[in-house]
Amino acid sequence: MKVLVPVKRVVDYNIKPRVAADGSGVETQGVKMSMNPFDEIALEEALRLREKGHAQEVVAVSIGPQAAQDTLRTAMAMGADRAILIRTDAELEPLAVAKLLQAVVEREQPGLVSMGKQAIDDDMNATGQILAAKLGWPQGTFASEVIVDNGSAIVSREIDGGVEVVSLTLPAVITADLRLNEPRYASLPNIMKARKKPLETIEADSLDVDIAPRLKVVSVSEPPAREAGVIVKSVEELVNKLKTEAKVLP
Amino acid sequence: MTQSPNDAQNAVEREEMAFDVVIVGGGPAGLAAAIRLRQKNPTLGVCVLEKGSEIGAHIVSGAVIEPKALTELLPDWKERGAPLNTPVSEEKLLYLTKQGSIPVPALHLLMPQMDNRGNYVVSLGDLCRWLGQQAELFGVEIYPGFTGAQLHIEDGCVCGVVTGDMGVDRDGNHKSEFMPGMILRARQVILAEGARGSLSHDAINHYKLRENADPQTYGLGIKEVWEIPKENHRPGFVQHSFGWPLDNHTYGGAFLYHFGENLVSYGFVTALDYSNPWLSPFEEMQRTKQHPAFRPHFEGGRRIIYGARALSEGGFQSLPKLTFPGGVLTGDCAGFLNMPKIKGTHTALKSGMIAADAVSEALRSTNPEAQTYQERLQNSWLWSELYEARNIRPSFSKWGMQLGALYSGIDSMVFRGKAPWTLRHPHADNQTLIPAKEAPKIDYPKPDGTLTFDRTSSVYLSNLSHDDNQPVHLKLRDPALWNEVNEARFSSPESRYCPAGVYEANTRDNGEKYLQINAQNCVHCKSCDIKDPTQNIRWCPPEGGSGPNYPSGM
Ligand SMILES: Cc1cc2nc3c(=O)[nH]c(=O)nc-3n(C[C@H](O)[C@H](O)[C@H](O)COP(=O)(O)OP(=O)(O)OC[C@H]3O[C@@H](n4cnc5c(N)ncnc54)[C@H](O)[C@@H]3O)c2cc1C
Ligand code: SF4
């Protein structure tokens, strides 16, 4: 079986995003970018499936600008066998991403798509679901455990207040939640080897898919600054403030 | 697979890789050395280790830079798109009193060191990112996110570097994703770790390189980057100050540079040989912004980055022996900064280049030591520049700021740096504190949240990443010594000098005092490793990629 792992290049999770001075969006110029953390988890799961003998090949795919190559090199340094860049400078919504991924799936014919549950930049949490629907495949979202066995996958899903276990017939789409695994580090020799692994670039335009945005961004703003705390001297003062200022007590 | 001698007790099996040269540190010194090596010999295997998550992630500087060394390294830097976009256009040096300021007139005559005509205001982080790309074009292999954790020494000779282990938990156990560090073998190791490098420190001690040199003395630079309204931006405006708020015995001052797209770089350097344990370099930096000579520059702006880093101030007298079997010291970890100019970038670049020349020659010989390094340095402008500047910094420690400034003027103008004497640095910075009860307390104003800030909201803008579940990288060799000395005599100076709020003196329920170490806040400035009175605090590199992630503009 072949596993396809879509990986997105996002502003690194350690960076505090800053709205650009003109309010047009989040500043990405000169900001450190890395692989979406949920995609790292999805990739780790794919690599473990390969190590256990359930998969023979892990293919990473990224959709984005030329610089997304760096993210694909990281994926290959972690262990992906090869990578595909669907190159475009356009702003993409989940629907467009799912359509482009559908085109890749049709070409590559994987037995499983292992992807992150959401990207930490736009927090959409939709691409995996749309892709499964477009392909007519079963989906196991918010996975915290995946067991592949004989043409099916048993997926434990993190849901409100517990875990739901579903069984999917492969091929299927799985989206990874935080607790699925701890992704590995890329070692120095593997980073070196990754430079020689195949990376194919396909122009998004050549795939004949309508990727025009359906949404319009009205405005982007930073959360209001937190006001400085005050130290209260007594319980009475606290209760009083909760009533009159915070208005959380009647 | 082999073991590094130091691993014997842990029985860690380490993979090996071999290069001709391993460079520790991807700052200006390391990257210049890397580029120069491949320019000289494109077949050399050259690898650069950088502990930051990317090149530039740990770089804090001013920076007004002299382009001289860069031009020697890459004469076509303009065509290659080097980020030197803001020439210095206007310059002021101010002596501050509490409310007033006295400009030093005819600066270029009186203090030729401070003359910045022809220089550029840059983000050194961005310059390093660009240098990193150039180095890769020359075929250098750069590995960000990997620390040099130990020197690999065999038969008395440094034969490589051991990279840091990844995936070890707080108690030293291996986590599921554990990845042991590797031995990167090298015929020569170039140390380019910047001020107070940890491997450099080991090399200096192990090979007794400081035997014939003065102690190194340091400053702590704390810096903010602001984005200000376009109408207030004066690209290339450069201002330095001395005097208020520091007393006459404390060396230091503020800098403020307008550069880039509506950015202002503001910072404050406090010499770490200060004596009053109540002093807080962070708060000195904050309150200087309120001075009428600085305040207007921040009007209508917002602070976007915060960081801190020590710089080596000792200069010529403090240069250690620069070579040892199997390696060399370059840049700030050797101490090549020119303090009167407050510039160490051009000297770091130049020392990296000269080291590369000496190292590539050593690779062709059987001598394990790059012996021509010293001689090549002595024949370069770098040596004469540092020699001429040598008396200025110590004159301030000796006579205080006002007489020091007077002396500096005479030394530069009359003797042109060739005075027939050399002033010494008598102490290391950890020896200068006086007991807290003998020192005046300093009353710092409370932060207002718009112009001045506290440490917590500041460190937030350093974009720290630090997996909490890893061994603590700041260690007290002897916790009891902290109570005896730091707390009892000096009233916990680390809780004031640490610019990131890592240290807190706390009291247990039983009334006993202890030092709380919030290691995850550390911005890797190295001040605690330098200033701790008994050198009881040891800074070791944490897991690769930990620490600040300074963005573009820093
Ligand atoms: C606040 C401030 C203002 C300054 N202003 C100016 C100015 O205006 N003009 C000027 O020319 N100079 C200025 N300087 C000085 C200048 O920044 C330094 O002299 C210069 O950066 C030194 O270069 P370097 O390569 O030796 O070290 P650094 O620039 O410190 O680089 C060292 C690199 O090595 C990495 N490293 C360290 N240890 C390890 C390890 N064990 N393993 C892996 N990686 C490691 C670090 O993360 C860092 O990236 C200023 C410095 C400060 C702090
Ligand atoms: S802990 Fe030490 S090295 Fe880290 S920020 Fe504080 S003083 Fe600097």
Automatic annotation (TrEMBL), chain B:
Keyword Flavoprotein among record annotations: yes
UniProt catalytic activity: a ubiquinone + reduced [electron-transfer flavoprotein] = a ubiquinol + oxidized [electron-transfer flavoprotein] + H(+)
Domain 4Fe-4S ferredoxin-type span(s) in chain numbering: 513-542
Protein name per its UniProtKB record: Electron transfer flavoprotein-ubiquinone oxidoreductase
Organism: Saccharibacter floricola DSM 15669
UniProt KW Iron keyword: yes
Coiled coil location: none
Cofactor note: Binds 1 [4Fe-4S] cluster.
PANTHER family to which the protein is assigned, alphabetical: ELECTRON TRANSFER FLAVOPROTEIN-UBIQUINONE OXIDOREDUCTASE (PTHR10617), ELECTRON TRANSFER FLAVOPROTEIN-UBIQUINONE OXIDOREDUCTASE, MITOCHONDRIAL (PTHR10617:SF107)
